[in-house]
Amino acid sequence: AAVPAGVLALLLWVPWQALLGAPLAELSGDQRFHIFLSNNLEFTRKIKGDVAALQRVVCDTFQLCKEEELLLLRQDLSIAQAPLERCHGRGFQAEACFSQIREGLRTYHSSLDAVLELLPGHAALVETLQLDAANLSSNIQHQMEDLGLATVTYPTEARGPLPAFSSHFHHQVGGFFILADFQRFLETAYRALRHLAHL
């Protein structure tokens, strides 16, 4: 059953649980792995900054700034959220977490097309964000292959055409939530990478 938007919002704002999981002894001493983590922590931070910049544009342009004011509208929108349950709490698993980050980046790369349509005057920033998401996904894929980590493929929602927004306003709200979801996704991914860097 679908989780009501209000409940979902509460779950998303629950204070961060300490990352748990068995130490990755075989990876923790690998110099290349730590360079990869360091580089991609910086890369993720950069992407987060670009998403925040677009969130400010949506706020300034459409006066859509506060998520709690829009939660009821969210129920009318078919916006896919990328799961990251393998990246935090008791479910933390390095291979599965990397796979979920990789898949999620692909999902948001596709979803950002809706933001591109919404903000044609900021196409360069949206396209840079899509390119960065694709590059980070590719980095993670190559690192998993280099380390011999198993690639776990999670069933993802069909990446069909963009959501059919019933009005321009719904499109604006949809763009708001795509960026808000992507920012939360990046926060979780960043914390997971930082956790691995400190093992």
Automatic annotation (TrEMBL):
SUPFAM superfamilies, per database record: 4-helical cytokines
InterPro entries for the chain: 4_helix_cytokine-like_core, GCSF/MGF, IL-6/GCSF/MGF, IL6/GCSF/MGF_CS
Cellular component annotations (GO), alphabetically ordered: extracellular region
GO biological process entries: immune response; positive regulation of myeloid cell differentiation
Compartments where located: Secreted
Keywords carried by this UniProt record: Disulfide bond, Glycoprotein, Growth factor, Secreted, Signal
Predominant location: secreted
Keyword presence, Glycoprotein: yes
Superkingdom of origin organism: Eukaryota
A single GO molecular function term of this UniProt record: granulocyte colony-stimulating factor receptor binding
Pfam families, sorted: GCSF
Recorded family membership: Belongs to the IL-6 superfamily.
Protein name, per record: MGF factor
